[in-house]
Amino acid sequence: MSASSIEDPHGDAPVALVVDGDAVSRRFVELALGRDGSFVVEGARDAAAALDILGSQRVDVLVSEIDLPDTSGLRLLRRLAQEQRLRGIPFVFLSSDARADTRTEAFRAGADDYLAKPADPNELLARVTALVERRRRERDESRRRSYTLAGDFETLGFADLVSLLGMSQRSGALSVLTARCAGVVHFDRGAPVHAVLGSLVGVAAFHAIVGETAGHFELTPGACEIAPSDRTICVSGTALLLDAARIVDESQNGVTHVPPAPTSARPTVRLSASIAPALIPSTTRAAQLEMALRDPFTLGEPRLWSEQDLAKWTAAPSGRDRLHVHLVADLATGVSSILALAGSPTERWVLDGLAAHKKAFGLTFFLRHERTIDLVLLDIEQPSELSDHLRRTPAFTIVAPPGGDLISLGTKARVELHGLIERLSPPAIVGIGNGALDSGLRRLLPDSRPSVLRCASGTLGEGSCELRAVLVRGMRLWASTAGRVDVPIVGPDSPEVR
Questions:
Q1: SS3 letters for 39-63?
Q2: How does DSSP classify residue 110?
Q3: What are the pLDDT digits (tens) for 290-337?
Q4: CB atoms within 10 A of CB 36
Q5: The Cα angle at residue 430 between residues 425 and 434, in degrees rounded to 5
Q6: Residue 235 carries which DSSP code?
Q7: Taking a C-beta distance cutoff of 8 angstroms, is the pair 19, 63 a contact?
Q8: Could you give the angle at the alpha carbon of 32 between the alpha carbons of 29 and 38, nearest 5°?
Q9: For the range 439-446, what are the long-range contacts, defined as Cβ-Cβ under 8 Å and sequence gap of 24 or more?
């Protein structure tokens, strides 16, 4: 198929490049993806031809065989990963090699999906379409974020940033993330009116941020959300900066001035109600819950909650043992992984879905002997959106950022994630992503109350990171915290297993 067919009549259709030495296989992919104009399909018999096509035209997804005439598909994948312009293209293997070892090696190399021949054309189309749509959502989010003011203090210092916002009379919340802690500065028509950095508030927090030479920031524009009675800063930004400069001068001239050091705290979340404790960790209890969940016939009930219903549900006691879990992920990926474990929607679920109010989505397993496992999905782009309505500490939190690491998240989202974990203090955290996620989460987690953290490589809902397997992994990690002094004391609705 020539490049001219991309321009007319399929100008808006995504382009799939199939790389396979077998002409019959290339034709199969063309028929599977090209029907109804879903994709424009380009073919290449080897890696060299594929690189020529990639250098001359846009490609939205690549489908390749493992064994190619001139090299291996794994080498082609690693070759693409070396170039910034190519590494973001979704890469799917469609191969005659169905061995588990080959699949494992492909995923470790960075493959997005792997199907064995002969594949079902509908499944191939569905999987490839899902990957392309996911990439499009990520690009749309990046474009949306590019209209906000974001960067790092090494490029644009905080003092210059405050002056810039003052001259432009911008309003909004400036999220700040440093190596030590997270914070936020609220501006009203260019004037700072409230600041929090770790445990510091007001002028002290503002001065501490001035002293931070390394860190990230992101402005979320909009009307100032801080009521006049709650504002902790009543002088201009210029006066604050001059005062901060005076403190620096006095320190350089031998005048002792030791500003309070910020510590990890809750910069973006308000404590509005008591938090029920997590189920006390127990290896016996975890084994019983795991045995029930591992049964493939065990399906959960999909749930939709309004904000008020979510607060009531998370605060209410539920049976003998209640394992409460938070899933912080991209909404589309999270919903897809949850629905894979859900039974048929109930009448209540349908009625709740018709109600015109903001909703939270989740899943509840009602097990034997009055045991439940319930999961609440939180949008990783806005982790604190429902924070005030979460009234129970999760036994563990699953964090699955889009793209596999925290780099894809803006500073505001990372600050909110820090605040959510600080407020609820889950005993255990399970990360799902790439090799950089572990270090990213460890830098982000608050120091005041450490959680046990384990990360797994993969994509939520796929392969070994299918949600049922992730829940089992989380249960085992939660059970491993038994006996830790910083684990919340069990509440009356969570008695010990005898």
A1: CEEEEECCHHHHHHHHCCCCCCEEE
A2: T
A3: 999 988 888 998 888 888 889 999 988 766 789 999 999 988 888 889
A4: 8
A5: 130
A6: S
A7: yes
A8: 110
A9: 440/405, 440/406, 440/407, 441/399, 441/406, 443/179, 444/177, 444/406, 444/414, 444/417, 444/418, 445/418, 445/421, 446/181, 446/264, 446/265, 446/418, 446/421, 446/422
Beta-ladder partners of 326: 376, 397
Is-contact 416 268, C-beta < 8 A?
Answer: yes
Among residues 32, 35, 92, 31, which one has the least CA distance to residue 59?
A: 92
Closest CA to 208 of 243, 173, 164: 243
Candidate from 127-131, 263-267, 377-381, 420-424 with smallest mean pLDDT: 263-267
- The amino acid at residue 156 is L
Q: What is the pLDDT of residues 440-491, one digit of tens each?
A: 888 877 665 567 899 999 999 888 899 999 999 999 999 998 876 444 433 3
Strands (E), 109-209: 113-116, 150-152, 172-177, 182-188, 191-197, 200-201
CA 377 to CA 380: how far, in whole Å? 9
Q: Which residues contact 252 (CB under 8 A, 6 or more apart)?
A: none
pTM: 0.58
**CA geometry: angle 417, 419, 423, nearest 5 deg:** 120
Instruction: Please state, in angstroms and rounded to a whole number, the distance separating the CA atoms of residues 184 and 270.
Output: 13
Cis peptide before 192 (omega within 30 of 0): no
Spatial separation of the C-alpha atoms in residues 39 and 33, rounded to whole Å: 6
